[in-house]
Amino acid sequence: MYFSEEFEKRFAEMKTHYPTQRAVLVPTLLYAQDEVGYLSDEVITEIAGRVGLTELEVRNVISYYSMLRTKPAGKYNVQVCTNVSCLVRGGEEIYEHCKKKLGIGHKGVTNDGMFSLEEVECIGACSWAPAMQVNYDFHENLTDEKVDQILDGYRKKG
Amino acid sequence: MAYLVSHPDEVKAISWRWGKGAENIDRYLELDGYKAVRKAIEMGPEAIINEMKASNLRGRGGAGFPTGMKWSFVPKESAKPKYILCNGDESEPGTCKDRLIFEHDPHSVIEGVMIAGLAVGAKKGYIYLRGEYRYLSVIMQKAIADAYAKGFLGKNIFGSGIDFDVYWHGGAGAYEVGEESALMESLEGKRGVPRIRPPFPAVVGLWGGPTVINNAETLASVPHILLMGGQKYAEIGTPKNGGTRLFCLSGNVEKPGVYELPMGYNLKKMIYEVAGGIWKGRNLKAVVPGGSSVPVLLANEIDVAADFDSMMKAGTMLGSGGVIVIDDHTCMVKFALRTIKFYQHESCGWCIPCREGTDWLKKTLIRFHAGGGIKKDIDNMAYLAENMLGRTFCPLGDAAAMPIIGFVKKFREEFEAHLEGRPCPYEDHGSDGEIPVLAQLPVLTR
């Protein structure tokens, strides 16, 4: 199992920050997920070995955090917030629009693997609602038209 | 990136560097950066803590505990290393203030962590950022690296003979982790479930060592307090509520945004003047004034000073400073449902009253909103929520229960209207997808 040089550099540095190996687990899983796309069995085995935990212990942590996934998502993971601040500014309508435009539902992936969609809890964009995140990019003050432009932009990017 | 707004009533005690390029360390130094930590080294631990006590700074995460007092609980001598833990896992719905601090003034957080360390004798500080804020992690990691490159962090900081390290740590999405003991579990690489207290973190915290845990806004306030003086900072606010507060105004207002206002600023004025009044000229229906976990205020209850004590007297809480404004086009049953969906999703499941209570409340509200409710549900929801209060290890159970009690009590007529006008008299707000199946859920009996 190989990760990028950047990952290895980060991992080696992070290990020096804590008195226990285990403490690097959560950020390491997230970085691994960014590289592989999801936490595959192979990734879990590799990371468990590196931090001195059993695979079960690692899976136990993975299942707790909503950003960690054991199944592939689309290349662009579209996360629409419908929590209260977004709700009252039309967050649900934005989510419905995304469903229609992408032709998938919650946790669905488009046939070409380009997009996945999730209805998510508060992403900390309350004062700029309604908002969504595509991978780690924030998109705020959304309208249906703005969503179309954003998603078309990602599709063009390929 | 989040954009900045401004209003003449703002008192920019901690946000004055925002938008001035202070994420660059050289610019930060031009803007009085790292002066406070040098001053703190000269002052020594006791004087720092006294200055914090004089400032009347109270924890900005939501609980409002006096910061100086919290720091004074850390034992002077400890066989185990002491730690400072900055809570940047901002996840309370309605709250988006820490994001701006990290984005526009990351060094102020580092400086705050350092000063807290000097005050209690810790040599390491961790800044825990929520995973969704990846772009802020990049800013934060660069700021830390720049501080090391200048020799401000590491061995012998500012020639004082004191060593101090600051590290960034990223989460992976869990509201519960914002609770201080769950935050420590998460940092240690475990599921973020709360620890039983006592012992409190100030005595037994990270890896068993004494640990100070403060919200990012609290720590970012610290350097400014030392530079302006605790007494002067205290005078900005009201008695027992020192200084300013970052208020995140969201929802149905014309000018939503994060504004820094003096503690005790009138809530009504905040909504109608600072935030430009109600969206699209509609009428105000309700305000959730301190993040989604606090009891709702009716439109006629908002003439109140926004500080910890006045809000408490008004039957709600200042909480995390997230003011959610709701107009008269909103269905409060639906708002209550969306609120409890969040807490049900985020409950760690450790305590039965929280795990089961949030689930029952969610199911009842889904059925109720969809038109499958019965009159008894209204009292049952209040009864269930009241029985969650104070019966969990951490405050998430209370955070879920308190708003529901408020919604049911203050909007009872609207709940009753759902029984009359099945399914929802406000159908223009759309359906939530789960209704057709879940409307058949069984009724909770007692």
Spell out the key features of this protein.
heterodimer; A: 158 residues; 4-stranded mixed β-sheet; B: 446 residues; 5-stranded mixed β-sheet; 4-stranded parallel β-sheet; 18 helices
Concise overview:
The complex is a heterodimer of chains A (158) and B (446). Chain A is of the alpha+beta class.
Explain the overall architecture:
With 158 residues, chain A is of the alpha+beta class. In chain A, 46% of the residues lie in helices and 11% in strands. Chain A has helices at residues 5-15, 25-36, 41-51, 55-62, 84-87, 91-102, 144-157; strands at 76-81, 115-120, 132-134, 137-139. In chain A, strands 2-1-3-4 form a four-stranded mixed β-sheet, with helices on one face. In chain A, a hairpin with a 2-residue loop joins strand 3 and strand 4 (137-139). In chain A, helix 2 (25-36) runs antiparallel to helix 3 (41-51) and helix 3 packs across helix 4. Chain A is elongated. With 446 residues, chain B is an alpha/beta fold. Chain B is 42% helix and 12% strand. Chain B is built from 18 helices and eleven strands. Chain B has a five-stranded mixed β-sheet with strand order 6-5-11-8-9, with no helix packed on it. Chain B has a four-stranded parallel β-sheet with strand order 3-2-1-4, sandwiched between helices. Chain B has a two-stranded antiparallel sheet with strand order 7-10. In chain B, strand 2 (124-129), helix 7 and strand 3 form a beta-alpha-beta unit. In chain B, helix 6 (106-120) crosses helix 9. The longest helix of chain B is centred in the C-terminal third of the chain and has 21 residues, at 352-372. Chain B is globular. Mean pLDDT of chain B is 93; it is low at 429-442. Chains A and B meet through helix 2, helix 5 and helix 6 of A and strand 3, strand 5, strand 11 and helix 13 of B.
